[in-house]
Amino acid sequence: MLENGTPAQVTCLPVGRVAGGREEVRDDDWGSEAAVIRLDARRFTPDAVAGLDAFSHLEVVYHFDRVPVEKIETGARHPRGNPDWPQVGIFAQRGKNRPNRLGVSRCRLIKVDGLDLHVRGLDAVDGTPVLDIKPYMAEFGPQGQVVQPEWATELMREYY
């Protein structure tokens, strides 16, 4: 917060972009998608990914850059517009029309080739700005039992 109580603006520079993989935005069947996260060679050297190849999975934070600002949701809606599912708030779903248009995905790391990270199962399309990459560590997974509503299980049935 700034001194006058207004929220401080946060600025992120992409660390890279998604190259290849799916070109059109579509909700399901991401599990077989192969793509490359190409890190920005103007900012990084291969030292930035030293040791990353010892991990099987990545957590990737990216920007839903194709969502127009006027399509951002801040209230409740039916996930995917499906009236059979309950209206839930934008923070109770993982839709792309989020207030800051941020996506988070876990994907398999296939190989590291210089500044190219070859991945499978990343649910971001070709050209998507990547804001951060972290190795997935089992200890950062949920602690205890995971609970979710039936509509969420149904929605995700074909996602990967």
TrEMBL record:
GO biological process, one term: methylation
GO MF annotations in UniProt: methyltransferase activity
Keyword S-adenosyl-L-methionine: yes
InterPro entries for this protein: TrmO-like_N, YaeB-like, YaeB-like_sf, YaeB_N_sf
Occurrences of domain TsaA-like (ranges): 12-145
rRNA processing recorded as keyword: no
Gene3D superfamilies per UniProt: YaeB-like
UniProt entry keywords in alphabetical sequence: Methyltransferase, S-adenosyl-L-methionine, Transferase
UniProt cross-references to CDD domains, sorted A to Z: UPF0066
Domain of life: Bacteria
Family in the record: Belongs to the tRNA methyltransferase O family.
Protein name: tRNA (N6-threonylcarbamoyladenosine(37)-N6)-methyltransferase TrmO
Organism: Streptomyces monashensis
Lineage: Bacteria, Bacillati, Actinomycetota, Actinomycetes, Kitasatosporales
